[in-house]
């Protein structure tokens, strides 16, 4: 008897150990799949001076953007008399990156030579395999206009204790202050479009505005508001220390009383106080349809794309290897896209502020042509002691400041990043998963009002968006927790989704793709998988967090509600053909082809029909 009891305890203990191991592995993988910002691997504050007269770095051309370009390639040539495999080239901007003092939050290491991280880096032997032998190499690096000049530095001794060996000449754009990287967003009214961009011109130097009008028609000027922030605005390191970089000035103009579906052209302008003008190139967009308009409407949704470098820099740990593919596919299909929703973990700057400019440059061909709407994620917002629902360091000290300042969303308060927006036959309710969403909170009341206030006869397609998975996910980290989604989320929110008959809820955060059946309280409400006719009876939950950042695995457990899983990079496209027919497609970033899809066909009476917990228990008729 004692032997059997001991064996039982031993087996039980072994199971507990196995579950503990699985939990630790899931947590570790969640950390790795969410990525370690490559720039954080460089202990730049520990850099020491080891200048060598026999070493050199040369960069050419020295002046960029002579024909108005905001992106240019630079050739960097370098030589070292003592080459090694861990030598690397850092790109710095501003070009004078030395500092006599470091910010107080940055631990001083004698001597305090460097206090600014590079904006990008690459190994010296990346395209020069003989560098270790002859000490000579070259790189082709892509630079964007970021309001300052650039220099290139050769370091030895790796990333943890770097030694500065040589510094290049200075490279700069012809006009580093030029207006760049416009991003469109829907305004608070359906007939309003906002344009947000960055420049080096403050309001004491120039007046910002947008020149715009119907294509081929009369052009008018609309003024822009100007925002910026300083080091004290962000919440901690590295955003306040080695990751800090002056963000310049962020301008937003509001283009109002647009005619539905009309094509407009626009240019960013700054009127200097010497009466001269600085212009951007010309862009164009199509005005949004009015709420309820019956026309073809195409929406792209994804999360966790991040940014990538076309020149291969910063990518030795495959941080966001799918990002460029997703961007290229969207650009390729842009004529078939009307609006984009980017649901959190936007560029993974994680406190390295230079990366936000590089991100806006990457998405410019998309964001300058169609509304580019954001949701807030943990890598934008979370920081201890700042009111975020999750007390972690994921934002790198940004605490929401970058996302809230550099992008417009039609929220009542951008510090509370929840809002609703209408696009024709769609109503989108965008939650901020990084603030408390539980029943009784301010955000919960917003979510209910957003869902309850839509006229489903005119806008039949009701979509809920959030960064974290507030619904269902088979991601390994969620499965090990036993919650298959954010803990407490379904318990608090699913009765709202059911009561107001939300069609689809889409999330990021888990870096993969997954689609559920129509579901309520863990039970499929329809056994169909591809073609839903009539009343949906539940909400279809979708994870679309595989747009670029390192992928995360699924649990091996099989759940009845999980219909399709894909461990690959991709994005979602919704196409509303009319008030009765919707097509859902999951496309892979590698080729743009459809790998999962379903259709919904129904009439207005099917939306009105009562299902479990979607109507009052009693009516006057009963």
TrEMBL record:
* KW Glycoprotein (keyword) present: yes
A cellular component annotation (GO) from this entry: extracellular region
- Recorded GO terms, molecular function? acid phosphatase activity; metal ion binding
Annotated Purple acid phosphatase N-terminal domain ranges read 186-286
Top enzyme class, one word, equals hydrolase
Q: What does the record give as cofactor? A: Zn(2+); Fe cation
Domain called Calcineurin-like phosphoesterase: residue spans: 298-513
Give the UniProt subcellular location, in the record's own words: Secreted
Pfam families assigned: fn3_PAP (PF17808), Metallophos (PF00149), Metallophos_C (PF14008), Pur_ac_phosph_N (PF16656)
Task: Enumerate the UniProt keywords alphabetically.
Answer: Glycoprotein, Hydrolase, Iron, Secreted, Signal, Zinc
Report the main location listed first in the record: secreted
Provide the leader sequence positions.
1-33
EC numbers: 3.1.3.2
Q: Which reaction does it catalyse?
A: a phosphate monoester + H2O = an alcohol + phosphate
Chain ranges of the Purple acid phosphatase C-terminal domain: 538-597
| Domain of life according to the entry | Eukaryota
Locate the Purple acid phosphatase Fn3-like domain: which residues? 57-175
Complexes and interactors:
Homodimer.
Of which family is this protein a member?
Answer: Belongs to the metallophosphoesterase superfamily. Purple acid phosphatase family.
PANTHER family assigned = INACTIVE PURPLE ACID PHOSPHATASE 1-RELATED, PURPLE ACID PHOSPHATASE-RELATED
Q: What's this protein's name?
A: Purple acid phosphatase
Species of provenance: Gossypium raimondii
């Amino acid at each position: 008897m004692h032997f059997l009891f001991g064996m039982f305890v031993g087996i039980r203990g072994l199971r507990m150990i196995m579950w503990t191991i699985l939990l630790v592995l899931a947590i570790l993988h969640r950390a790795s799949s969410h990525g370690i910002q490559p720039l954080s691997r460089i202990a730049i504050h520990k850099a020491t001076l080891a200048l060598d007269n026999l070493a050199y770095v040369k960069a050419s051309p020295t002046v960029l953007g002579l024909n108005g370009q905001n992106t240019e390639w630079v050739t960097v040539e370098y030589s070292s008399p003592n080459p090694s495999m861990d030598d690397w080239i850092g790109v710095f901007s501003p070009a004078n990156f030395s500092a006599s003092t470091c910010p107080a939050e940055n631990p001083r290491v004698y001597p305090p030579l460097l206090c600014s991280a590079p904006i990008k880096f690459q190994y010296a032997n990346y395209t020069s395999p003989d560098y270790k032998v002859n000490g000579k190499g070259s790189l082709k690096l892509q630079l964007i206009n970021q309001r300052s000049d650039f220099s290139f530095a050769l370091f030895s001794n790796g990333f943890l204790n770097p030694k500065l060996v040589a510094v290049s000449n200075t490279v700069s754009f012809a006009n580093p202050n030029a207006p760049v990287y416009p991003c469109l967003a829907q305004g608070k009214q359906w007939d309003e479009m906002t344009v947000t961009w960055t420049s080096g011109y403050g309001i004491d130097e120039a007046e910002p505005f947008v020149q715009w009008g119907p294509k081929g028609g009369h052009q008018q000027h609309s003024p822009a508001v100007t925002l910026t922030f300083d080091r004290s605005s962000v919440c901690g390191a590295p955003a306040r220390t080695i990751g800090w970089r002056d963000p310049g000035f962020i301008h937003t103009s509001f283009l109002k009383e647009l005619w539905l579906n009309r094509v407009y052209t626009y240019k960013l302008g700054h009127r200097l106080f010497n009466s001269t003008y600085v212009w951007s190139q010309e862009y164009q967009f199509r005005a949004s349809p009015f709420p309820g308009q019956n026309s073809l409407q195409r929406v792209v949704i994804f999360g966790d794309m991040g940014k990538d470098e076309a020149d291969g820099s910063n990518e030795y740990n495959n941080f966001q290897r799918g990002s460029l593919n997703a961007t290229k596919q969207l650009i390729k299909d842009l004529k078939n896209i009307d609006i984009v929703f980017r649901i959190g973990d936007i560029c993974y700057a994680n406190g390295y502020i230079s990366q936000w400019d590089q991100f806006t440059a990457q998405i410019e061909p998309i964001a300058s042509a169609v509304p580019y709407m954001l949701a807030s994620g943990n890598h934008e917002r979370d920081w201890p002691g700042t009111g975020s629902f999750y007390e972690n360091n994921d934002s790198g000290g940004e605490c929401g400041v970058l996302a809230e300042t550099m992008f417009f969303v039609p929220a009542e308060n951008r510090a509370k990043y929840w809002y609703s927006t209408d696009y024709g036959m769609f109503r989108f309710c965008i939650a901020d998963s990084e603030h408390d969403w539980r029943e009784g909170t301010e955000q919960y009341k917003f979510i209910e009002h957003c869902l309850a206030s839509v006229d489903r006869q005119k806008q039949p397609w009701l979509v809920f968006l959030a960064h974290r998975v507030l619904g269902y996910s088979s991601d390994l980290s969620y499965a090990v927790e036993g919650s298959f989604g954010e803990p407490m989320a379904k318990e608090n929110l699913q009765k709202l989704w059911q009561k107001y008959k939300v069609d689809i809820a889409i999330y990021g955060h888990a870096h993969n793709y997954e689609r559920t059946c129509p579901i309520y309280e863990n039970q499929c409400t329809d056994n169909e998988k591809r073609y839903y006719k009539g009343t949906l009876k539940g909400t279809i939950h979708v994870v679309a967090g595989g747009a670029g950042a390192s992928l995360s695995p699924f649990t091996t457990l099989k759940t009845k509600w999980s219909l399709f899983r894909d461990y690959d990079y991709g994005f979602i496209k919704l196409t509303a053909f009319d008030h009765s027919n919707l097509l859902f497609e999951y496309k892979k970033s590698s080729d743009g082809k459809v790998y999962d899809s379903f259709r919904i066909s129904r009439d207005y009476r099917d939306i009105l029909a009562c299902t479990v917990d979607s109507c009052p228990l009693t009516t006057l008729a009963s």
